Amino acid sequence: MNRQDFYFDLPENLIAQVPLENRASSKLMIVNKKSGEISHENFENIINHIDEGDCIVLNNTKVIPARLFGERKETGGKVEILLLRQLSDDSWEVLVNPGKKARIGDEIIFKDGILSGKIIDIIEDGKRIIKFEYVGIFQEVLDALGEMPLPPYIHEKLEDNDRYQTVYAKERGSVAAPTAGLHFTEEILKKIEEKKIKIAHVTLHVGLGTFRPVKADNIFEHQMHSEYYHLEESQAEIINECKKNNKKIIAVGTTSCRVLETCGADNGILRSGIGDTDIFIYPGYKFKVVDNLITNFHLPESTLLMLVSALSSREIILKAYDEAIKNEYRFFSFGDSMFITD
């Protein structure tokens, strides 16, 4: 299976640069995963397409302001740091820009010394390990100094950081938002509960690898990135009960989907767990837990597009994407939504 099989030509003007004023006012394309039948809706009406007793699964990760700007202590040269993963209380795996000059022992000062860091190691793919020093609580320092790490295809400044968070974000740790969840509002969640649709939560901290392109022509040669996940026993029980009652499990986003399929046994029963997952889902994969998927429109030749195609088929999904382009759907993080259903 080739990477080029998942290519489509996207007009640049369809890449959403800013969120809509109302989260739920985005377009919603409903795609039958078997027949390929397509209909068009507004996201605020998604509850009409989910049955009582079904279960939607939300990723409750919270994006941290992971982009920091500082100066080299020795030269005063400007440095940008992107936090990737916390290794201990004060040590982080990071990307440094410019990177070639970032050597072990280099010290970086942020905002007049409120925060400082020393590079203590260089690891794979040019990433660094940096150990921070500060006064107070690191999360509070980071909130004061850091900026939201928007994807590289977004060039507009984000006016409100909360718009790059889901309304149910809780567990800090992501450097990118689980964007399928950005469409949900408190009002929609309330209607879901009133309709007696079950809600379960998982945690997957989205890493920079979510934007990592597939470079290998043969997708089987692609090395999938690893991300931290956590599924609590109480949430696994909610999902397992729905499965037992032959109700649909609806993953909100590819991140929720990856947690469920990582924790699912061949019989579809979920096991609670905590760890790192590098699961790579592409056409031919047999889903163990997930029945339907709410997702955004993804980059050409991306692992996210491959996952979505696995739930339906490459032909159906690419046809749906062509329909989305013709109808001027908005793409990527702040874009419109797709519901892949039966």
3D architecture notes:
By secondary structure, the chain is an alpha/beta fold. The protein folds into two domains: 3-63 and 160-341, QueA-like (3-Layer(aba) Sandwich); 67-145, Beta Barrel (Thrombin, subunit H). The chain is 18% helix and 28% strand. The protein has six helices and 17 strands. The strands form three sheets. The protein has a nine-stranded mixed beta sheet. A hairpin with a 4-residue loop joins strand 6 and strand 7. Helix 5 (303-311) packs across helix 6. It is globular. The two termini are 26 Å apart. The model has no long low-confidence stretch (mean pLDDT 95).
Strand and helix order: EEEEEEEEEEHEHEEHEHEEHHE
Query: Could you say which overall geometry the principal axes of the C-alpha atoms support?
Result: globular
Please summarize the sheet with the most strands. 9 strands, mixed
| Gyration radius, rounded | 21 Å
- Helix coverage percent: 10-25%
Assembly category: single chain
CATH superfamily of the largest domain: QueA-like
Mean pLDDT: 95
Total number of beta strands? 17
Looking at the structure, the CATH topology of the largest domain is QueA-like
Query: What strand order characterises the main sheet?
Result: 2-1-17-16-14-3-12-13-15
Between the first and last Cα atoms, what is the distance in angstroms? 26 Å
Number of domains: 2
Q: Please state roughly what percent of the residues sit in beta strands, choosing from under 5%, 5-15%, 15-25%, 25-35%, 35-45% or over 45%.
A: 25-35%
**CATH C-level category of the largest domain:** Alpha Beta
Number of helical runs?
Answer: 6
State the secondary-structure class: alpha/beta
